[in-house]
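Field notebook, page 350. I keep forgetting to write these up properly, so this time I am using the form the group agreed on. The chain and the ligand, iron/sulfur cluster, are recorded exactly as supplied. Prediction of the bound pose follows.
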Amino acid sequence: MKKSFSQQLLSWYDRHGRKNLPWQKHRSAYTIWLSEIMLQQTRVATVIPYFERFIKRFPDVSILAAASNDEVMSLWAGLGYYARARNAHRCAQIVRDQYAGVFPELIEVLMTLPGIGRSTAGAIVAQAFDQRAVILDGNVKRVLTRLRAIPGWPGKSSVQKQLWTLADELTPDNRPADYTQAIMDLGAMICVRQKPECRICPVSQFCMAFQQDQVTAFPERRPQKPLPVREVSILLCHQQDGRILLERRPPDGIWGGLWSLPECDVDKDPAGFLESAYGYRMLEIDRGEPLSHTFTHFHLNIRPFLIKVQFAADRVANDNIRWCRASDLQQMGLPKPVAGLVSNFLQQAI
Ligand code: SF4
């Protein structure tokens, strides 16, 4: 008898699927939830060291809930998409306060928690509670659009609707946790974005794109609009003794809640701004190498200024501003481009 799609996929998973990922070793709703949040828009290899550090420091949801925002952000720094970290922290506090520290098992309830969408909720229910649930993350979308040669960009709502229906049709009643991992693994290991390995694919017999020799046509790309460009001046203010001025960013917006360098509009005089906004007087100023960083919705061009300031007292009347030594920086959680700028400055200053 011909095997079904899920049987074929599960047999392949039994032989080739990933079974030693760190969140699979001590499987719980907490570890699965945390891994799923970290894996949003991010590759497994990038996530693993972050996940391991996080779990070591926050071994359960109540410990994460009780941590300070600074500590959570510093362990997340470099992983990007920082709204995920803020939402994860808030979610942990809600699970502790409203669910006695136990993640709910219903998809609809999980979806009311910050940062948990339909696919993440499905993955938690399937992987942590081994109950049938449907997932549709980026990898699965790619597999399914190829499987049925579905035209249109998968982010479009009409295409998403078709994909959810298909994902539901294909999800079996048995072995929910394994099936969920299997379809994610297929997308990550075989049905990859560039050059999928159709010759060794366990489900090629079901795949319309393969049969029509149209694999590279799916999924269709997002309709491209040029990203807007923004510019900002960033002020790396330092003192004679090597301390650097850091400022915590507001909780929302880019790099929300992370420590960073003060910034001002490019049409403002950096030294004048520093004096009026922070009360520090400039002694010397240099321009640093310009850099740029691309966010989901815009490119940011950064003009750095290296400003030596007159001696400033340790204590400033604001919790969101701090003079820091090089040894403090590891615990501060700086965004990647800013951390690079500071690290270059410190190396040159030594
Ligand atoms: Fe993906 Fe190729 Fe397998 Fe189709 S046959 S699911 S395109 S790897």
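OBSERVATIONS:
- DSSP finds 15 helices and eight strands in the chain.
- The mean pLDDT is 93.
FOLLOW-UP: compare against the apo run.
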